[in-house]
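Field: sequence (string)
Field: structure_tokens (string)

Example rows 1 and 2, in order.
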Amino acid sequence: MEQDNSSGYTALRAGAGVIDRSRLGRILLTGADRRSYLQGLLTNEIAALTAGTGCYAALLTAQGRMIADMRVLELGDAVLLDVSPEVTETVRAHLERFIFSEDVEVRDVTNERAEIGLYGPGALPLMSRVTDARLDHLPLFGSTQAAFDGSRLLVVRSDEAGVDGYDLIVDRAEADALRGALIGAGAAPVDEDAAEAVRIEAGRARFGQDMDEDTIPLEAGIEDRAISRTKGCYVGQEVIIRVLDRGHGRVARRLVGLSLSPGTPVPAPGAHIASGEREIGRVTSATLSLALRRPIALGYVHRDFVSPGTEVTIANTPAVVASTPFQVTS
């Protein structure tokens, strides 16, 4: 991403930017048992959700490995899941496979609904100019129904982009008009490079990039957001509790931030991370941070090298382990 093509990045940091999030998969669960059913499968507290609330959670194997991470929204008459597009069908089939006598129906609605993100410090006032949504006290993962030009949409408070904002879920036929209205009201379109830069600066792991089917949630550092320590049993819980309680949270590797010197190349995903002659991990995501004026990255390193300030090399280029989120000022 070049400095002279940074309007989308600047909008996310100092204004309002529009991100097309329609690539995500959307799975709808209906039926009276939908929350109790998910309670036994997902890592976070689902049974206690009420209409207009939500949470972040993971779906695990019995060995504690990730099948997917997801945003869970209780709408009052259904639960809507946002999942990575690479695993949408896997998640749908998995959820459907374990329904026995429960009153639950699982349906992929990805092709029916589009999702447009409006993020940045200017998102709230801009939303009030385009929709009639009441957003002043909407909590994170909270959702509310709203209207836009006679059409209904669901507005969700979100920090998925790495900055605060809102996701607008609308019938796919209305998506272009909504996006145009947001841009017409002053939002800037955000390309993939700018969106990735802000996500990496926030240290936000992305499934399919920084997490996959071999990842334990604790390795990716998502336990505070995704895992309830007080809920009842769920698939994979035994492994998670054993690591947290008996192993004091120690895992073999962890996802960390990595900072390189200004002017050095942006490392490629998969690049080797080393300490001296010892290979200790791999890069998963990387970008040129316009705010920090240097390349930064996310990557897994051996647990002995996770402390901020630890000096490493990435493909023979000096780097240092950094805390996330990176200290970016708008």
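Row 2 begins here:
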Amino acid sequence: MRIVVAGGTGFIGRALCQRLANAGHAVTVLTRDPETARGKVYHAVNIVPWQGFRGPTDNLAKALGECDVVINLAGSPIADGRWTPQTKDRLRKSREGTTTAIVTTLAKLNARPVLLMNASAIGYYGPHGDEELTEEAFSGHGFLAGLCREWEGAACAAERLGVRVVMPRIGVVLGRDGGALTKMLPIYRLGLGGPLGHGRQWMSWIHLDDLVELLMFLLNHAASGPVNATAPHPVTNAEFSKTLGQALGKPAFLRTPGFVMKLMLGEMAEELLLTGQRVIPRRAQSLGFHFRFPFIAGALNDLFR
């Protein structure tokens, strides 16, 4: 298949593009910085400049008019500091704005791709305590939930154009070369890691390899709508901290008080770090997807063996 990827130079995008190319697909990455992108993505991937929601859409229209599938992983990092008004605006535009630009361009084409796979996130559900959340659960409250609703709403507009839309709601992605672990590892390797706040908040995670394989799986199955992209066995933050310490051979009992995190990071700490969601990948499992790393210990041991 001919596949166009937005967000292909990111942590998830790089791994996915290499997997797609190795599987024999013709992959094109849309990027604002072609020179930098060439050093990041797999050598077999084609690079096309595009300024996202900010700029002209000529290159976008040409790329979309010549592809079978669009995969949109674009979005500014969500956990890079306090959520100032300017940060929130950037997060919205990089997600909902980019998705709207893609769908608006699709509407102008005579020949359209058959599938738009548009990333979302488990933040859609908002804080939910111990409740198990499948794809049928209602959206929650807070900035992240609202952001995900806007993001998914922009993607769903492509359904009116006859395009199948799949929205993987991605959890905390664990991999060697980016994502959440990159921020955690320096502290844990010093033996200074531990739970955040009370540690009872749920953490719905997925190994990067499983996420890439799940996205590959969804290319070839007639699923549409939201699909929870998380491992079948979420853990509490305290359990994750303990297991990460064991995988690294380091103690992990130094708790960071919640009030300290709120003072440092404000709303971002409250929504992203001190509360969580207990998400279950019911649709992926019902479709027959097999997780290579269903348990946190196996995932972390694989990453740090």
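free_text_note (row 2): DSSP finds twelve helices and 14 strands in the chain.
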